[in-house]
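Researcher: We're teaching a course module on how sequence relates to structure. For the next exercise, students receive a sequence and then see the predicted structure as tokens, so they can try to spot secondary structure elements on their own. Here is the exercise chain.
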Amino acid sequence: MKIVVVGTGYVGLVTGTCLADVGIDVICVDVDAKKIENLKNGILPIYEPGLEKLVHRNFDKGRLQFSTSLPESIPGADVAFIAVGTPPGEDGSADLQYVLAVAREIGENMNDYGVIVTKSTVPVGTAAKVKNEINQALARRNKEIPFDVASNPEFLKEGAAVNDFMKPDRIVIGVESERAKQVLDKLYHPFTLNGHPVIFMDVPSAEMTKYAANAMLATKISFMNDIANLCEIMGADVNLVRKGIGTDPRIGNKFIYPGIGYGGSCFPKDVKALIRTARENGHEMRILQAVEDVNEDQKSVLFNKVKEHFGDLKGRHFAMWGLSFKPNTDDMREAPSVVIINQLIEAGATVTAYDPVAMEEAKHMVGDKISYGSDEFEALTDADALLVVTEWAEFRIPDFDELKNKLKNPLIFDGRNIFERSQMKELGIEYHCIGVKSNY
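Model: And here is the predicted structure for the students to work with:
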């Protein structure tokens, strides 16, 4: 089979590379010439554990190619994945201009039957728009070439994307014909040999499944953060509450960890888009609007704790551990760290941050507003307090004696609850976390 993946961002690069790794010929296409040149030289645009090794291996074997030309790549393709960005507009709606532009170019250059698959996260009804763009392009060419449009939403967790693709818990595919179903069933056969299910459905249902899944997970996070804030007020310990409800199989223990809000490329964008889609169709998603509101407020919780403790922050200096929205990624889209940094700077404070992989990305997003440490302990030097913003594994058991020596005050504001409150008290560290009263 010949596969074309349009877009070499997070979804496109993982998809193309993992398909190549099972022996399929894949061409990844992107309009960014610099990105394509870097990929040919083994330089990846994103950090994702295990991905770099797979890219190198499959590129060296010739199964994975990179190109800036869709017209040269699309002829003869059995399947073309559209995996370009769908950034949110100011009103929360998904911007489909890049998806539809790719569809138009496919229609202008395809020469035989193929399945065009929307891999980008897109609102219900997008596949119909993609089909219309292709049909119009074919009409302008006076061509009648059969094709199908399918929806194959991704469920990749940043930081575990390669494993999620190679060993999926499910593959959701929306199709409109038996022919498209057979093509995609063949494509994904290597990934279902261990019993992982392929769930075929109609196209609109597949498009909705992606949004519904992310909205449900985002709801669990915001619900738990709301409970955490109430626990702190009432004197309960949210960590114990979480354990108490997480053992209920109807609830489960995933996505119920309190913190400072969700971020990244999926949850914020998808919740906003689903709210907007519903509104455009005369329906208000009241629960999801509350989820969004709670999440935005939660990003300020850590700053509010700092402000309550110190009062005037002018001239104060803070260390920050973690910048990415979660561990094992350099993604800072909608990251709570950005909100906290801006709040501290506006209050007259200064910040030195350290993150194992996201500091280059931070320099693009926040620039020289803050300083950057070469490691976690350098970031602590002469800081009035430490703010833990991302729960990287290497932060979990630090040298606390060194930490206390570096800080002006033995004071931690933990936005991810990675330390034990009782241990902090034994060590003489004043400790503020989420959903539990301070140990002082």
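Model: If you want an answer key for the exercise: The first helix runs from residue 10 to 20. The first strand starts at residue 2 and ends at 6.
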